[in-house]
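User: Here's a chain of 290 residues. Predict its fold as tokens.
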Amino acid sequence: MERAYYEKISRKPREFVKTIRLEFNGNTPSFPRHWHKSVKIIYPVKGRAMLWLAGEIHEVCRGSYFLINSKTVHAFGGRGEDYEGYAVQIDLDYIRFLYPMIDTLSFLNRVGESDRGKIISALHELVSVDKSEYSDMAVNGYAAVLISRLLEGGDVLNDRRSVVKNRHAPMVYDIMNEIDRGYREKISPGTLAEKHNISYGYLARVFKESTGLTIGQYLNLQRLDHALLDMQCSELNLTRIALDNGFCDYKSFDKSFMEKYGMKPSQYRNRLDLPMERVTFWKDGSSGKQ
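Assistant: Prediction complete.
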């Protein structure tokens, strides 16, 4: 399987948004599988192109956009026809400054026609800013408008870091952060409770009431997220990936993966091996595997 690489995006001071113009002609280039911490938005203005996203193929065309969440492996290529468009990369820390709860959300690319029009209008304004001494401020402002319209459009999914706001929230966030840092190691709920000078039973109840998950479920999901990225970005065997991400053995990893994703890790990895060239787009816009 082709290994995905991490794309480090260089920016100038005060530059939180990077806009890259993409132009393809008959000789279609392909951008290999990669990932980055920024949120990326593909914005076509002419023609159509293909986007590979975690084993699935999507078509992007004029009048649409496609948002790629932070740390999501993807690849991009043309279809042998003229294509023009933009890749807009927005620094995650800047989004976090605008909306501190962004780490609890994922964008879904599912909005209604009215909201889609507002989002595309904001994209058009952003990529149309003329370069000047003050253009970075204008671009950052349009990016803020764009993020607000994405949020207003309901194009988001709450993830497991959503915590009920109550007097226990700071402690729950501390525990989540401890799990996020130490997911590879053996983590005992009892040890976490002792560290915070509370009983195990009290911690278990507060954590479940605040997050909707048990501590064990949250830890398992965190391990699965990192294992998924390793599957996309490396050629390590699945047992090694399971052990490196805190699972006691492959059997527990296989069971947890199946429960969350509805398929075995081996099946998911086979989907990742499908190259973009093996997908044909039919005239009605649907796709099929050759």
